[in-house]
Amino acid sequence: MESLVGLARSIQVRFIEHGRTFATAESCTGGLVSHVLTEVSGSSAYYVGGVVSYSDRLKRSLLGVREATLARHGAVSAQTAVAMAEGARSQLGADVAVAVTGIAGPKGGTPDKPVGLTYVAVADARGHDVRRFNWTADRTGNKLLSAAAALELVLERLESERTTG
């Protein structure tokens, strides 16, 4: 958990430094990313909030994920992760948003989508980036790894913005 809080500190410094806001949309992590962000004092200066959308109904109603996306690709997919990130950014009025969707386990996996499969997406004014992961830890481990991947992708996106813009 300490390493996650360290990532959250780095994110906070960058967002405050640039006067930008941040939001989260989480499914399989159940609010862990939001929790870690708010473990750092002063996070209210940039973190506007998040949505834990464990059900498809909330992915649709709160984040604007289209029914067609869920029907065609499923809740655990790159397309849904991107739609969740874009929806959080739009609905929560943030400059940048990250989304996590996956199968934490130990149940719920299929041959096509095994336990540990996770997608993380980040969206900003330049567009989006999405990554696929296949974790092999237990439920808690998969959640921790997914939260770390989300925070690392945000930092990577911010760094790429600095080097290209």
Class derived from helix and strand content: alpha/beta
Compute the number of structural domains: 1
How far is the N terminus from the C terminus?
32 Å
The percentage of residues in β strands lies in: 15-25%
Tell me the Rg in angstroms: 15 Å
Low-confidence sequence ranges:
none
The residue-averaged pLDDT reads 96
Write out the CATH superfamily name: CinA-like
Strand segment tally: 5
Query: Which architecture does the CATH hierarchy give at level 2?
Result: Alpha-Beta Complex
Sheet with the most strands: spatial strand order: 2-1-3-4-5
The amount of helix comes to: 40-55%
Q: CATH first level: which class?
A: Alpha Beta
Broad shape = globular
Order of helices and strands: HEHEHHHEEEH
Give the biggest sheet.
5 strands, mixed
Q: CATH topology, anyone?
A: Maf protein
**Number of helices, where a helix is a run of at least 4 consecutive DSSP H or I residues:** 6
List the helices and strands and how they pair.
Elements (H helix, E strand, L loop, with lengths): L1 H17 L3 E5 L5 H7 L8 E6 L3 H8 L3 H7 L4 H15 L3 E7 L14 E8 L2 E8 L4 H26 L1
Parallel strand pairs: 1-2, 1-3
Antiparallel strand pairs: 3-4, 4-5
